[in-house]
Structure formats: structure tokens, C-alpha cells
Structure prediction request, 98 residues.
Amino acid sequence: MKELLIGFNKAFESKARLGIMSVLMVNESLSFNTLKELLSLTDGNLATHLRALEEQGFLEVQKQFIGRKPNTTYTATEVGKKAFSDHLNALEEFIKAL
Prediction:
């Protein structure tokens, strides 16, 4: 049974991080506010999880101004997409084995 857990990625154990990567897999990029609304997270909670995923190289961050307002958008990197897909495949194999 332990060998089935080897493919799990600890970066995606959190419900918030699982949600972040899920929505970024099907959207090219999303703003901080859109992610916050979709996932029903507080600013601080979302920022913490985004930073952790960014530090692992799973997200790319773009900061810009729209008019006078700052706008931060997030995109899943190729590394992040592969890691997330591998995690989902491992989860699927684990479920099938049960």
C-alpha cells in the first residue's frame, strides 16, 4: 500500500492548493481576486498558498497596473501542470487499488 502513496505530492495535500491548481489547469491565468472568490478564501490564506506553490515553481506570477489599480495574475507553469497531473494520476491509481 505504501508504494501507492509514493506518487502523491505533498504540495497538493491542502484543499486550497488542490483548488488553486485545479482552476489554473483549466484557465490560462486568473487574478488574485478571481481565485479568492472562486475558492472562498481570505486574502491571507490565499496569499500563503499561492506563495508556497510559487516557491516550488508551480506558478508564475504577473504583476501589473490596470489604471491605478494593481492587478496580480497567476498561471500554472509547465512544471506545475506536470506535477499536478502526476499527483492526480497517483490519486486515481490509489483509488483503483482499493
